[in-house]
Every structure is written in structure tokens, then in C-alpha cells.
């Protein structure tokens, strides 16, 4: 029994090493605060650990599942934050660029970041704006409609068109 | 487009994948997904897309995050060892589901399910990451289409994984004694010195090293020759071209398999 548990922990350590930069980096991008990002990253990683048996391979990759957990925790946290503080970061978020104060910390996955940046560049400005506000800013469709002064239906259409376009330009299988 | 709560629920899938829904909308989208094959089929590709947005934000976490997280895992793992069986894949009856809103779509919580689930997940991520790397950052094809032994070992009930990194490259051994299959997964190994090759070894009882084949790739996954069921360790050495009958250099990596 002890051996099973030990093997289990080894495997989680392997998984930690593979996914923690994305989990932490995503939390940092959304929350814009290293201390909160660290807390949220730990919560997310432990949620993943505790949901043993909870992953269904037919519904996506492990990596996508882990990042879904992390993103949800990060946006739940940022949505409870002060609205004015969130707006201070709007310009960073809007275009999907790496904020300057994060550049030094971005040591891994730079090729991946560049590839995604180029893919975002192939979206229309309007599509990129809503995709980035939603994913990196944690804004809901309703919040974006208010923020941008647009009808909700317009925002919804841009979100859907933008994400489908991004999927296609990134070469992800539909 | 109508704005009513039940209008065109299919249109929610993208916003759901992007995390752009409030909790009530999220619950509605999840309920719809559970009953709509069309949206369920669309979801993995959309989640893979948003995962790449997440990956693009990757940053180095503080070292204390690793220590703190793994300390909790170790403590909980010890508790779990007393409760859980060692058989993987046994579909335990599903006790109370967690509140729907707390549960991403891919999650089907099975408290008490075998802890070994983790190992398969870690193996799958390692292999997908390395194959993705090897083909130039394109999303890896489903494992089964890439390599049957890899798929078999990842899905074996007793799959195990351990780190075996020949610094500065990264490497992992994924193995299953029941199916007697072992795979070495490696990323970023520089070419061997001229006139030399990398050779893999399995240490058998008695301390004898048996060749497990030559490693021809710097990044990828290779099935090991020989039996892993009785092996107690894995090693990687640099040998003269053609390989050696026994290791002749200090191993770059030597990892117990137990």
C-alpha cells in the first residue's frame, strides 16, 4: 500500500513539473498579483490531486483539464476583486500581450507564447479583444458588453467566432 | 440572437470553454452539455484552444510552491494509502457528485477511486508533451494513432512513471509490469558525441545490466527492449557506435524501478 501511495506521489510530482508553470503563469496573468497567483495555483493543483479518478480522457487532454480548473479558480478570485483595480489592467489584457513586469519571469514556453501571440494576431481586433478580456481578464460576456458598450448578442457572437477562428489558426482538431 | 436564458444553448459552448460565463450561465451550459452530443463533441477542441492560451502565459512558479503543494499531497497520500485499493480502472460506484458548479466538465469525481489514476494522467501528459515537442509544438495526435505500445502502457492498470532525466535533458520512464512494457520518454537530449550512441539498460536482479536498446532520438518516446517485469532499475549510458554488451561508461542517469 505504501508503495502505491509513493508511486502516486511521484506521478503527481511529474505532473506538477509539467503543468505548474502554465497553472501559475495563467493565475498570475489573470490576477496580476504574485501572492494571489501562488495561492490560486496551489488551490488548483490540489483540486486536481484530490479529484482522483475524476478525469475523463474522452473529453479532452489532462493538460486542458488542469488549465480549466486553474482558470476557473483564477477568474472566480478576480471577479470578487475591486472593479476599479481590474480596470487598471485592461490595456494589458485587451491585446493578449505579456505585461512588461512579467517578461522576466517568463522563462519557459517562449516558443509556445510566440506561436499563440501570432495566432491571436490573425483574429480581427474585435475578436481578439473579447477572447483576451474573457480569458486573461476574467470578464464574463455580460461584463464585456457593459465595458465595451455593446449589445450582449454582439459580444456573444464575437466570443464564439473568435474562439473558433483561434482554434482553426492554432491547428487544433475540431 | 435571442438573449433569453434558454435561447440557443449551443451558442454557450465557446463562452463556456473560454470561462466567460457567470456561475448561473455556467451551470446552464453544463446541463446542456451533458445532454447534447453536438456540443460535447465540440468541447475538447475548444478547451484545447483555451489551454494553449493558458500555456502561452506560463511563468516560473516560486520554488516554495512546489514544496508546499507536494507536502500536502504526501500527507494526503499517506491517508489515502490506507483506504484505496491498488487496482486502476475499477469503476467504483459513484457516490454523491460534487456541486455541479464546482466541477469542470471533464471531471467525474469518484472519491475512493484508486489513487493510481494519477500515474496514468502524468504518463499521458508527459508523452503528449514530448510528442508535441517532437513534432514542433503541434497538438499531438491521439496516442493510439501515434504508437500502440505507448497507448497500451498508459492504459495498463499498473502503469508507473518516474523521472529519469539525463541533465540538462528531461526524461521519464513509463512502465507496467503486468503488460511487461516500458517506454523511455525524453526531451532535449543533445546528439551523442561522434562515433558514439546512447544506450538504455534495464538492471535485472543480481545487479546485471541488460541492454534495453539504443536511443536514436533526442526527443520522443522509445519502447525498451527486454523484460521490465523483473527489472529493478533503468540506466542510460554513452557507448561506442553499435552499442555494448555491458555498460562501459558512468550512467548519465540511473533510476530505480520499484
Radius of gyration of chain B, whole Å: 22 Å
- Report the largest inter-chain contact: A-B, 97 and 83 residues
Based on CA atoms alone, the radius of gyration of chain A comes out at 17 Å
CATH architecture of the largest domain in chain A: Orthogonal Bundle
Contiguous runs where pLDDT drops below 50 for at least 5 residues of chain A: 1-5
Share of helical residues of chain B: 25-40%
Structural commentary:
- The complex is a heterodimer of chains A (174) and B (258).
- Chain A is built from 10 helices and no strands.
- Chain A is mostly helical and 174 residues long.
- Chain A has 2 domains: 1-81, RNA polymerase sigma factor, region 2, helix turn helix motif (Rna Polymerase Sigma Factor, Chain: A, Orthogonal Bundle), CATH 1.10.1740; 83-174, Winged helix-like DNA-binding domain superfamily/Winged helix DNA-binding domain (Arc Repressor Mutant, subunit A), CATH 1.10.10.
- In chain A, helix 1 (2-31) crosses helix 3.
- Chain B is α+β, with helices and mostly antiparallel strands and 258 residues long.
- Chain B folds into 2 domains: 9-55, no CATH class; 119-256, no CATH class.
- Chain B has helices at residues 12-17, 23-35, 37-55, 63-81, 117-134, 143-146, 148-155; strands spanning 160-163, 170-176, 181-187, 196-204, 208-215, 220-223, 233-240, 253-256.
- In chain B, the strands form 2 sheets. A 4-stranded antiparallel beta sheet of chain B has the order 1-2-3-6, covered by helices on one side. A 4-stranded antiparallel beta sheet of chain B has the order 5-4-7-8, with no helix packed on it.
- The longest helix of chain B has 19 residues, at 37-55.
- Chains A and B meet through helix 1, helix 2, helix 3, helix 7 and helix 8 of A and helix 1, helix 3, helix 4, helix 5 and strand 1 of B.
Amino acid at each position: 500500500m505504501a508503495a502505491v501511495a509513493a508511486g502516486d506521489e511521484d506521478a503527481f510530482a511529474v505532473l506538477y513539473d509539467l503543468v505548474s508553470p502554465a497553472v501559475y503563469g495563467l493565475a498570475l496573468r489573470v490576477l496580476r498579483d504574485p501572492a494571489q497567483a501562488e495561492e490560486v495555483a496551489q488551490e488548483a493543483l490540489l483540486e486536481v490531486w484530490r479529484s482522483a479518478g475524476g478525469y475523463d480522457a474522452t473529453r479532452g487532454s489532462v493538460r486542458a483539464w488542469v488549465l480549466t480548473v486553474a482558470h476557473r479558480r483564477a477568474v472566480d478570485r478576480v471577479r470578487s476583486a475591486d472593479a476599479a483595480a481590474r480596470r487598471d489592467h485592461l490595456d494589458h489584457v485587451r491585446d493578449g500581450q505579456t505585461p512588461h513586469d512579467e517578461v522576466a519571469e517568463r522563462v519557459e514556453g517562449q516558443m509556445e507564447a510566440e506561436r499563440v501571440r501570432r495566432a491571436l494576431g490573425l483574429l480581427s481586433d474585435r475578436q481578439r479583444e473579447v477572447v483576451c478580456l474573457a480569458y486573461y481578464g476574467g470578464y464574463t460576456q455580460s461584463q464585456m458588453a457593459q465595458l465595451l458598450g455593446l449589445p450582449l448578442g454582439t459580444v456573444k457572437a464575437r466570443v464564439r467566432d473568435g474562439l473558433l477562428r483561434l482554434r482553426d489558426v492554432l491547428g487544433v482538431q475540431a | 440572437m435571442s438573449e433569453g436564458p434558454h435561447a440557443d444553448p449551443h451558442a454557450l459552448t465557446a463562452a463556456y470553454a473560454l470561462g466567460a460565463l457567470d456561475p448561473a450561465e455556467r451551470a446552464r451550459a453544463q446541463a446542456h452539455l451533458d445532454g447534447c452530443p453536438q456540443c460535447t463533441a465540440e468541447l475538447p477542441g475548444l478547451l484545447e484552444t483555451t489551454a494553449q492560451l493558458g500555456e502561452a502565459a506560463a511563468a516560473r512558479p516560486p520554488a516554495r510552491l512546489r514544496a508546499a503543494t507536494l507536502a500536502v499531497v504526501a500527507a494526503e497520500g499517506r491517508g489515502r494509502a490506507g483506504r484505496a485499493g491498488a487496482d486502476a480502472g475499477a469503476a467504483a460506484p459513484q457516490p454523491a457528485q460534487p456541486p455541479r458548479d464546482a466541477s469542470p466538465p471533464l471531471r467525474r469525481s469518484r472519491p475512493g477511486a484508486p489513487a493510481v489514476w494519477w500515474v496514468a494522467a502524468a504518463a499521458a501528459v508527459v508523452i503528449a508533451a514530448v510528442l508535441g515537442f517532437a513534432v514542433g509544438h503541434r497538438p499531438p495526435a491521439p496516442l493510439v494513432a501515434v504508437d500502440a505500445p505507448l497507448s497500451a502502457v498508459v492504459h495498463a492498470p499498473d502503469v508507473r512513471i518516474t523521472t529519469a532525466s539525463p541533465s540538462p535533458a528531461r526524461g521519464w520512464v513509463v512502465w507496467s509490469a503486468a503488460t511487461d512494457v516500458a517506454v523511455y520518454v525524453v526531451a532535449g537530449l543533445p546528439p551523442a558525441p561522434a562515433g558514439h550512441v546512447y544506450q538504455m539498460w534495464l538492471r535485472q536482479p543480481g545487479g546485471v545490466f541488460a541492454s534495453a536498446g539504443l536511443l536514436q532520438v533526442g526527443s520522443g518516446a522509445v519502447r525498451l527492449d527486454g523484460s521490465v517485469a523483473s527489472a529493478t532499475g533503468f540506466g542510460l549510458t554513452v557507448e561506442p557506435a553499435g552499442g555494448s554488451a555491458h555498460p562501459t561508461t558512468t550512467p548519465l542517469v540511473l533510476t530505480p524501478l520499484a
